[in-house]
Structures are given as C-alpha cells and as structure tokens.
Specification:
Length: 257
C-alpha cells in the first residue's frame, strides 16, 4: 500500500488530498502512469513535467529520480512546482505556504541594507535574497526551498531560521558567514528575492519591486555553477538524468551537516 498526497494544484487534478494505492515496489514513473489512469476525466490536467515528488519527505531527485522505487507503506507527496506567475515573477506553494520569487537587477543601492529595509517595511513576510548566479532554473529554485521546508518540519535545519537555511543550501555550505558572503545580496549583482507569507502582502511587495525587476532565469549560469562547485564531467555523466547538474546541486544541498 502506498499513500499518495496531493499538494496545491495537484488536488484539483484528483479532486482529493490523498489516495491509497494498493501497490508497492513500483517506480515513480509507474506510479505516475497509474495515477494518470485514475485521474477523473473532467478534472484539471496534471503536468507531470513540472512537479516535485518527495518520498517520505525526501526529494526524489536526490535519489534515483523517476526511477526511484516506492516501497510498501511509503508516503509520496506530489507538488506542482509552478502555480502561476509571469517571466518577472514566479508564484508557487510549498507546505501550504504562498511563495513569490522575483529577480531584481543589481544596482549600487541593492545591498544588505536594501534587504533589511524591506524586512522592516514588510514584517509579516519572510524574505531572503540569493544571488542569481547560484540558482540554475525554476526547478532548482523550488527544490531547494522544498528541502528547507522539509528540514524545518523535521527539526533538521542548518540554522534556527528558515531564511538562513535556504541561503546555506544554495551555497552548499554549512557555514553561515560563507553563505552570506558568497551567495547573499551584493551591490551591482542580480539577485532573486524569495518572499514567503500572505498573498496580498506578497503582491504589494512585488508590485513595488516590479520597476527594478528583470526576466527571471534569462542568464545561463551552468558553466559558472560547475566551475564554482567543482562539478566534473565525470560526476555529471554518472547521473542518469536529463537535469544532471540540477540533481547534483540538490543532492549536495540535502546532505549538508
């Protein structure tokens, strides 16, 4: 027996929050094929290319991807990674928390004080800024955030603050000072602002920042990430995945101590 839990928009596809599947020892691919057959014909389409799948709280990309074997009594969470947004704003949900992400053009005035001022102005939302150089794509952005949320749930964060844990996992560092220095907000460097909280306040924040925002993920930073984290061609070839660099980054982030 496998318990499948649906999050966010996935609930609309199956018209329920949870399904019990009377099978075990099947791969994620096999489970997805089965779920698509079980999905009500008149419900919202499930985009299986844009979902995060966690088994017992662990992101499947840190295991064997969609080839990961699901065993008896396992709990599988299916989370759509994109619920809406535009090229300048990404909107999604993790653990029932509304999250907005927007990429800000780096300027001389966009430094740590810029982030501190935003936190004072919007005290009811959580904010973190991550250098755009250290986020590969939408999926990488959301998987790391999901990992931090899961670690918070299991009292396994690298810091006592979720925002700091997030920064450390993008930096692949268990040293707070290194994460802030290398991956945090800097003058004249584009960064992605991650905001968690009330939808209405998040919309107000993003509307305020829209004039200094740019299209997200317009820069290909694969080579930078490979060089910075010393990820070799041999390592990439050892991962049987269409997104081997992303999977390696997420795996490294998941095993930080």
């Amino acid at each position: 027996m496998i318990t499948v839990k649906f999050v966010g928009g996935a609930k609309k596809s199956f018209l329920t929050e949870q399904l019990l599947v009377e099978k075990s020892d099947i791969s994620i691919n096999e489970l997805l094929d089965l779920l698509l057959k079980l999905k009500p014909a008149d419900s919202t389409k499930l985009d299986i290319e844009n979902i995060l799948i966690a088994i017992n709280g662990v992101d499947s990309s840190a295991m064997d991807g969609k080839s990961t074997l699901i065993k008896n009594n396992d709990v599988v969470n299916i989370i759509p990674i994109i619920h809406g947004g535009s090229s300048k704003k990404l909107i999604f949900e993790i653990a029932k928390k509304q999250i907005h992400a927007i990429e800000i053009k780096g300027q001389k005035s966009t430094n740590v004080q810029f982030l501190d001022d935003l936190r004072k102005k919007y005290p009811y939302i959580s904010l973190q800024a991550v250098s755009s150089n250290f986020i590969l794509n939408k999926s990488h952005l959301i998987k790391i955030l999901s990992l931090s949320f899961e670690c918070k749930k299991n009292n396994a964060m690298l810091s006592n603050k979720l925002e700091t844990d997030v920064l450390m996992r993008y930096a692949l560092s268990n040293q707070i000072s290194n994460a802030i220095k290398n991956v945090g907000i800097k003058s004249n460097v584009n960064f992605i602002l991650i905001a968690i909280g009330n939808k209405k306040i998040l919309n107000s924040l993003c509307d305020e920042l829209l004039p200094i925002s740019v299209s997200m993920f317009s820069k290909n930073n694969e080579q930078f990430l490979k060089k910075y984290f010393k990820i070799t061609k041999k390592q990439l070839n050892s991962v049987y995945s269409e997104n081997s660099l992303e999977d390696i980054l997420v795996e490294k982030a998941s095993v930080l101590l």
